[in-house]
Amino acid sequence: SQELEQSPQSLIVQEGKNLTINCTSSKTLYGLYWYKQKYGEGLIFLMMLQKGGEEKSHEKITAKLDEKKQQSSLHITASQPSHAGIYLCGAYGSNYQLIWGAGTKLIIKP
Amino acid sequence: DTAVSQTPKYLVTQMGNDKSIKCEQNLGHDTMYWYKQDSKKFLKIMFSYNNKELIINETVPNRFSPKSPDKAHLNLHINSLELGDSAVYFCASSQAGGGFSYNSPLHFGNGTRLTVT
Question: Per the CB < 8 Å rule, is B106 touching A50?
Fold first, then answer.
């Protein structure tokens, strides 16, 4: 069955530094979503990517979907404490079921 | 003005009890979901309803029974609770019809942390 692999599993970054989180599938992805989860809260929708090569930005967060539509990266520029949380990618696979990565835990050191 | 709200936020109960979690969305969405997030943070789909009709029912013990009185509500009832049921349960909704839509992200509630002792 198709799976989404996220890397790294966890990340500790000094405040102000840039970072990248990856989401990889062995098969083509359709409708790739990035979400953020804070402890005790639900998942907050960040961005959706659909087309190969697509790139979207929101404030200091940029997400890209590669041309083959098998990998997406989430890049945060000049990280802030408010960026801390768990980032999850979700996507529709070839069987039209929504699948999820295991999440990347991001800690920002002041 | 909460879009997807679920209650209670925390639920602590003993093995063997029956409990319910309620979910309501005010987004006018057609599809609602229940997800289970385990200790490793994996999100697993349990059920999906579209306009009050069950469209996804993953391999979930039949102790779990969803009920959708109308398309804005999807409640989850759990009978004979077991230790392994301890997890965070998330309700979500989307505009998707038929269970999926590439253009329709899910909107999640804040989760219900269930602890079975």
Answer: no
CA distance B105 to B95: 8
* CA–CA distance, B23 with B42 (Å, rounded to integer): 21
- Which residue in chain A is spatially nearest to B39 when comparing CA positions? A102
- The secondary structure of residue A15, as a DSSP letter, is T
For residue B5, what are the contacts with CB-CB under 8 A and spacing of at least 6?
B23, B24, B25, B109, B110
Residue-wise pLDDT tens digits, A18-77:
999 999 998 888 778 999 998 778 899 999 998 889 999 988 999 999 988 899 999 999
The per-residue DSSP string of A53-81 comes to: T-EEEETTEEEEE-TTSSEEEEEESS--G
Q: Are B82 and B115 in contact (CB under 8 A)?
A: no
**Tokens 């309700």 label which residue?**
B91
Pair type for strands A19-25 and A71-76? antiparallel
